[in-house]
Amino acid sequence: MVRFSRGLAAAVRLLLLFGFASFEAFPQFVFSGSTMLRDDVPFVVRGVVYANTPIGAAGGDAFTASSCLYARDFPLIAGLGANTIRTEARVSSSDRVFRRSLESADLYWIAGFPVAENDPRIVDEVVAYAAEWAAEPRLLALSIDGDGTQEFFELLAEAAARVHEGHPGLLVTTTATRARQIGAFDRSSQDVLQPDLDFWSLALPGRGELRPEVQEARLKTAKPLLVASFGVDAYDDLAGAADLEAQALFAGLLADELDSLVAAGSPGLIGGLYGEFADQWHKGGPDPSVHGAAGEVAEGSPDGVWNPAWAGLFGLTRTGAPGLDALRERPSYQELAEVWGGLAPGELTLDHGPSIAQDGIRNAASGQPTIAPGGLFEVVGDALSARTLQTGTPADLPFYLGATSVCLGGEASPLYLAEPGLVRGVTPWKARVGTEEALVFRAGAASVPTPVETLEASPGILTDGVFQPGLPCPVNEANGVPPGAYLEVYGSGLGNGAASQADGVAPSAPVGVLEMPTAWLGPYQTPVLYAGLFPGTPGVYQTNVRISPDAGPGPVELRLAQGANYSNSHRLRVLGEQDLPGVALGLPDVAEVILQGGGPAATVHLPLEGFNGFCSLVRFELSGLPAGVRASIPVGFPGQRIPLTLWAEQGAARVEEAAITVRALTSLAERPAQTVHVSVLPGLGDVRLRVVSGGWLSGVPGATFLFEDRVLLQTNGGGPGRGFNFLTIDPWTGVIGALRQFDTWGSEEAVAALESYLRGLVPGTLVLGAIADDATLEITPETRALIAEKLGAELIDFVEYQWSWAVIARVGAARPIAEGMMPNGTVVLDRIVSFPLAEME
Fold first, then answer.
1. Side-chain-facing half-sphere of 213: CA atoms under 13 Å
2. pTM for this one?
């Protein structure tokens, strides 16, 4: 894992030995008859119409909103099970964040080119736009869209012909708003007059049924047909309020209808796109800062009115940073994901938005509260990600990980790492000097905008980032170097290189900085031999210095400076003749490793320390492994955290705190050792489960889950765990899953997260659930209905404020295995469950 800490130099040196560029042939979209093929395999379009116009901005012919919004949105689109987006406005060919985000999300793109006026000169603009994007591997088609008049279709025929002349492999389409626009003699839209149009796109927003218009269109053309947009809006004009459940119902019904039409072999139908991804307020009236409902009478709409400003799968919420709105998930998102077999990001199920700690944005090398363009930064906070994720392409960083992204001064930031409490990445090169606002987006939810100071240079030395040339062991106060030694100092924040760089892309060769830093050993300046961007690792700089041959033995502090800005201090030791080499193995990072028979492996890390210049390969031996427990441990060097990976085979006997000895073997006489404690829980067979729920009125508020008397959860009233607590267990292996807690007493956000979690539960999964303190204050009848639907719960509708409630259930079963509630007492469920569980009827 890239953590900018121990072993960094060894890691970044390895990057020089391996190439991270991927050479993939561009997908080729062609038609075989009326079937679309991608690389000779049938391809059905499933996607969304995408625009990112923020609150208060007017829509236009070109994308002008912050590139940060791609990183906010694209992982959510991918979570639908979508494979395509369609944009109606033009996108600049220099927009690398858009390109990279398409690639990261594995999405293809139908690029809209809006024709505002039927001027013959527009043909040249279309051809130029096609030329700019023709080499983009994610481009599925160019959609040339206009007013549907005869003049437009005459321009379309010429533009499509010229696009094909210059780029024969690029598909061309146009979007009709009614079926009658297709194949019309009075519009020059017949197939024979549009020979270079590869397929038709038909927009059907607001319709409660797609089949009639699709069938009418199929009678008018032999070309393939794409439903360019479908879905109803979230605003019920009759009630004068939003009806999110009705929108979700139609999202599922229309997606099912579209899938059934494609599956039934409806001639030439190649799929469809939901429109839109997020609300566009500017479509709701003259004031784009107001979420108006200026709809239009629409035949086929459920309420008779089409409100395009309410069409999104997500609503928008202001964040305090203009142009950087937060998203509010609507039930239609989960409904569409269910039909399309998507996997909605786990970040949606966190019960509150991301938050940045006080002084939580800082230089990842120095720890100081200032950053620099092209330098490493880190964000410390809470609920920043649902799990630990790191990039798989360290030489070309993505702009989001999972559904987490960072926006610095309106620019999307390339990321290395995302964890629940920490995000690390690279400051965009365009970051302006001065104080700017930073936000973290997680599944559309946004943190409070937080100020961060950007300097032209903010030098920092990475923790354990100093090495002797050619050696992988970090130089520090314990493991020093002799006088006269050369040092490679790895850090960040030294400012611009001699050549301009793309955000998140590492140079393939060293790039010297424009201004050489100075280096200091204690109060004395020491020579700097070189300073520049390190190849293969974005944001990392290498500075070469030399310790004076006359330096006396003892500890000393190394610092770098760029102008008036100084780095953190790195303590090291200059060795004397009496300093003898040594090695030590530190304590494991967890007190106990808990395994489960047939369950996932667990990894514990042991720090390996060298002393007084010791830098040799270290091997390890293990003893005391219990029967059925297996282990793996690699060789290592001083300065590394050595990973010991343990797993229990299926059927492994229960073990309580077995002591495993890890011993280091070196060329030295000493054999340092440490003890790792391991416990093994059963997987298959009879397992005792115990669930306890205490509402506030019980007098002992809290919740407890026990698995064979091993406590998996124990909460007290009023603290963490208040609300609903759930734990999943795999029905076939008995392996314990993730614990989730939703404070539905505390916030509506937690209710939305709970509902998202419940919708994502896999049928057949065993679920333990318990209320602690109170869980009913903010939930809605829809929340209760969802718990009843997913868990078969029969008592949840009767649970009142501060009551106790617990359940043991299988997702999708008609009734729970056990359920109980009490108004003023504690609920205790105690059951023996035998794994694997039987198939549900």
1. 27
2. 0.88
Report residue 599 as tokens.
């369950």
- The Cα 752–Cα 412 span in angstroms is 27
529 phi/psi in degrees, rounded to 5? -90, -30
| Whole-number Cα distances in Å, 44 to 47, 99, 224, 486, 582 | 10, 22, 12, 60, 63
> How far, in Å, CA of 538 to CA of 497, rounded?
12
Cite the beta strand spans of 612-731 per DSSP E.
619-623, 629-632, 641-648, 655-665, 673-681, 685-695, 702-707, 710-714, 723-729
CA–CA dist 512, 531 (Å, integer)? 6
Is pLDDT of 740 > 70? yes
pLDDT in tens, 144-195: 999 999 999 999 999 999 999 999 999 999 999 999 999 999 999 999 999 9
DSSP string across 816-837: -SEEEEESSS-EEEEEEEEESP
Contact 149, 187 (CB under 8 A): yes
CA distance 250 to 234: 10
Helix, strand or coil for residue 373?
coil
Q: Is the preceding omega at residue 302 within 30 degrees of 0, hence cis?
A: no
The answer to whether 56 touches 397, Cβ cutoff 8 Å, is no
- Alpha-carbon distance 695 to 691, whole Å? 13
Which residue intervals of 171-279 are DSSP H helices?
211-218, 244-263
DSSP string, 412-471: E--EEEEETTEEEEE--TTPPSEEEEEEEEETTEEPPPEEEEE-S---EEEEEEEE-TT-
Q: What phi and psi, each to the nearest 5 degrees, are found at residue 151?
A: -60, -40
How is residue 716 written in tokens? 């007290």
Nearest to 158 by CA among 116, 198, 124: 124
Residue 389 contacts residue 402 (beta carbons within 8 Å):
yes
Tokens of 256: 């099912």
pLDDT in tens, 374-412: 999 999 999 999 999 999 889 999 999 999 999 999 999
Residue 262's pLDDT band, with cuts at 50, 70 and 90, is: very high
Instruction: DSSP letter for 166, please.
Output: H
- Residues 207 and 224: their CA atoms lie apart, in Å, by 21
Mapped onto helix, strand or coil, the DSSP state of residue 472 is coil
Strands 370-371 and 326-329: unpaired
Q: Mean pLDDT across the chain, nearest whole number?
A: 93
Q: Report pLDDT digits (tens) over 508-563.
A: 999 999 999 999 999 999 999 999 999 999 999 999 999 999 888 999 999 999 98
Q: What is the mean pLDDT of residues 319-341?
A: 95
- Structural Rg of the chain based on CA atoms: 30
Question: What percent of the residues of the chain are helix, what percent strand, and what percent coil, each to the nearest 5?
Answer: 20, 35, 45
Beta bridge partners of 697: none
d(CA 116, CA 114) in angstroms, rounded, equals 6
504 vs 43: CA distance, rounded Å: 32
Tokens for 468?
A: 């002797």
